[in-house]
Amino acid sequence: MSVFPQALLRAFEAIPNVPAFEYGPRVVTRGDVLKLISVYVGALRATDASLGPGCGIAIYTGVTPEAFAVQIAAHVLGLRVIGLKPGMAADLSNIIADARLLVVDKATSPDIDSSLPVALKIVQLEDLQGSPVAITSQGRLQDVALVLYTSGTTGGPKGVECTYQALTGSWAWQRSVWDQRTEEMAAKYQRFMLFGTLASTVMFEHLGLCLTGGGTAVIPNQPAALLQFPCVLADLRISAVLFTVPRLYHVLEVLRAEVNINLSYIQSIVISGSPLPPQKLRAAIKLFGDSVHNGYGMSETGLVCLLSAADVAAHPKAVEAVGRAWTGVELQVRDGDGSPVPVGTVGHVWVKSLGSFSGYTNEDSSIVLDAGGWVWTRDLGALDEDGLLYLTGRARDIVIINANVYYAGVIENALASHPDVDAAFVVSVPSSKTGEAAAAFVTAVNGQIPDLDALRVLVKERIGPAAVPVSITVIDSVPIAPSGKPDKQALLNMPLDKNRS
User: Fold this and answer.
1) Vertex 361, ends 356 and 362: CA angle to 5°?
2) Residue 67: CB partners within 8 Å, gap ≥ 6?
């Protein structure tokens, strides 16, 4: 198996006239991308003749065909690519301290202070010019190929390191490992909407599925913050798209009021990033049918599980699951001592795949990465007899009440089971009586305010009296963090309902 990205280059060479990207009026073929990569390989070498396998380069660009091509060129040279997301400029000096070059473009260069307190050269992507050179992957399997930063759900953002060996074996970029499910999924990615940032594990991985499978990545000709969902999907004839849970909420709300939006091109919607309440998944399936998928994964592992509408149709209870293990993924549920538990037993979810990370840049990874390559997701869950994974909460998202641990996810699930609750979020607040207590925030279905006493009874009956929230606050919508996930820190700063139990 040749080192990443050689398999992708060969796939592009096989069908050079097929579009790889569509960016506004521009159509960029696979042959065009190969030429760009060839030019950028030579230009990077000319910029710093010492660049070679193992050297670091940081890339902070918008989402363009050129941005993708320069990253692949860096991988051809075997470099350690540090991908930067919007909003990371404030802590740039720590993140890119070991990089030789920082590549920016017209969209991102205004964010960069030219007097960075680190010794590196800032290069404008538009200035990287030169004569095409031969492109052959020089990466070494043991070297780190890519560093992407997490959203910080379990603490501050962590730099997740992925080796050339991991990218070489990753399902997204290696068609030889695909099974029937992957081939069927790739067939739906003929027009995949690429937006946001390339420095996102989930976006980069699904871009790989699209390009490896012969599809076209369609880039909207405007910033992600200005995109009008779901109209943009109709305008660009999108067949596959990624949604965060809040974006799904928005799309469902718009479509309730506007029925004249043509979404007949949609074949795949993967919803990911945070837990999806069962009633919202049902609503999405009712509206979009078999195109709906609930995805579960993390920066350290990539996609772990995928739940399809067909899974829900075959197993109605699966609406509460996150799906079956994806291509090349192994799952284990373990107890606190690290031993696998029986089917149906809740424990700690562990994952193993060829594409898993090798460590963190800024944190000890030994807690979550064992000697056998298994990754602790920090999630709690159980596997059923059909291989479906059901999550019950995060191992560190807890409330300690009277010295007893209660998982926020379990309380949230109980609250969200009420028919008038659209979504539920639980945080820990100080309590003079019990040390900590649960405080809940809920959004209502169609503005129908739920009976708060009924919600308390639900939690009491399902979990126990101590887990009953000391306050339940009805909110219009949950605050969203820059990662697109619910912002629980912002919830802590909101006033609690005075109707406290």
Assistant:
1) 125
2) 59, 61, 105, 125, 198
Q: In this structure, which amino acid lies at residue 88? A: M
Distance in angstroms (rounded) separating the CA atoms of residues 219 and 210: 13
Q: What is the mean predicted confidence (pLDDT) over 318-340?
A: 96
- pLDDT at site 259: 74
| Full domain range(s) for residue 221 | 169-394
Smallest CA-to-CA distance from 293 within 316, 315, 321 is with 321
Q: Which amino acid is at 3?
A: V
Q: What digits encode the pLDDT tens for the residues 281-321?
A: 999 999 999 999 999 999 999 999 999 999 999 999 999 99
Provide the pLDDT confidence category of residue 115 given band limits of 50, 70 and 90.
low
CA 99/CA 200 separation, integer angstroms: 19
The H-assigned helical ranges of 97-244 are 164-169, 180-186, 201-212, 231-235
User: For residues 122 and 116, what is the distance between their CA atoms, to the nearest angstrom?
Assistant: 10
Task: Specify the 3-state DSSP secondary structure of 412.
Answer: helix
Residue 479 resides in a domain: yes
| Strand ranges of the sheet holding 347-352, from the earlier edge strand across to the other edge | 330-334, 347-352, 375-383, 389-394
Chosen domain end from 94, 122, 140: 140
- Average pLDDT for 323-343: 96
Query: Half-sphere exposure of residue 196, counting CA atoms within 13 Å on the CB side?
Result: 20
C-beta separation of 92 from 120 below 8 A: no
Tell me how far apart the alpha carbons of residues 497 and 136 are, in angstroms, rounded to a whole number: 62
For range 204-214, the mean pLDDT: 98
Cis amide leading into 157 (omega within 30)? no
What percentage of residues in the chain have a pLDDT greater than 70? 95
Per residue in 372-403, pLDDT (tens digit) is 999 999 899 999 999 999 998 876 688 888 87
Same domain, 342 and 201: yes
Helices marked H in 344-397: none
Q: How far apart, in whole angstroms, are the C-alpha atoms of residue 321 and residue 281?
A: 10
Query: Could you give the C-alpha distances from 216 to 30, 202, 494, in angstroms and in order?
Result: 9, 17, 43
Measured between alpha carbons, how far is 244 from 232 in angstroms, rounded to an integer? 16
Task: Report the DSSP pairing between strands 292-298 and 268-272.
Answer: parallel
Instruction: List, for residues 402-461, the tens digit of each pLDDT value.
Output: 877 788 888 998 998 899 998 899 998 888 788 789 999 999 987 788 999 999 999 999
How many structural domains is the chain composed of?
A: 3
| Diameter of the chain measured on Cα atoms | 72
The predicted pLDDT at position 487 comes to 85
Residue 312 lies in a domain: yes
